[in-house]
Amino acid sequence: MPNWTAFSGLTGVVLVLLLSLARLSQGQDMSERPNESTPQSNSNHETEAFTTKDSDQQNEAEISTNTTENTNSNSNSNRQLSSPSDEAPTQPQFSAGMLLANVALSQGLFGFILVAGAWYTAIPPAALGLDVRDPLSVGLLAVGVGVVTGLGLYAANAVGAASATALGYEYEEQLRDLLTPETPAGWVLLLCGVLPIIAGFEELLFRGVLIGVLSSGFAISWFLAGGSSVAFAVGHGAQGRLGILVTGILGFALAVVFIYTNSLLAVVVAHYLVNALEFIIGGAMGIEWG
């Protein structure tokens, strides 16, 4: 017999951890670069040290009665001026591949926890939107629905971005630019590894579990659709306020598709297409709709 309560508790823990991680990532300026003004300041310190040293040497040439104690004092002063503590702190720089691997590992781990929890608590696959009775025909239909939905949502997203820009609102693309690969191997990792993991985990959590499982246990699907969409939007806070709004609308559209099709595969395919097209068209081709 399914243990709906236990699995709901596990889902809550995963959701809190995910949103906390997203919040921590948002708190750090990922586009931050090493401070270029500090080396200039150090250069001034070094110039001052050399100037002091030259001045000391000139004084030694003019005044032959300087004692060894004064010479040692000047030497110590020079060492203090050029001490390692004045060196500029460096900020760690992360490549797109490292960032993609971090996202894939973290979301893959959360996804594994949810799948293992669903198995342990005997959650039926149908509650997650997985119909195992006729996987071939159901799968083909789900892929078709997902492709149509994904293309439609990407087009709507492009229109929304263009309209927002025309109204003077800025759409944040720093995260996408940071994650856009620069090598063919990076694109293979992104399109064949990272994006499927992201789409699979997020749809499993925000649609399959927060709507499918909870509505099967408690029968409040449309209320859950709104709540899961809000959580989905909050988890994408790095995209800015406009990005949060757009993501919330996208999440609710995916929730509607999930409720009417009861197919997790359909929304995973749609989610994957929206992300992939965003990277290919916006990141690789440089075509910005906003």
Automatic annotation (TrEMBL):
Every copy of the CAAX prenyl protease 2/Lysostaphin resistance protein A-like domain together lies at 187-277
- Ranges of compositional bias, category Polar residues: 79-90
A Gene Ontology BP annotation from the UniProt entry: CAAX-box protein maturation
Q: What is its EC number?
A: 3.4.-.-
**What Pfam families would the database entry show?**
Rce1-like
**Coiled coil (residue ranges):** none
Query: What would you give as a GO molecular function for this chain, any one?
Result: endopeptidase activity
Question: What is the name of the protein in this document?
Answer: CPBP family intramembrane glutamic endopeptidase
Record lineage = Archaea, Methanobacteriati, Methanobacteriota, Stenosarchaea group, Halobacteria
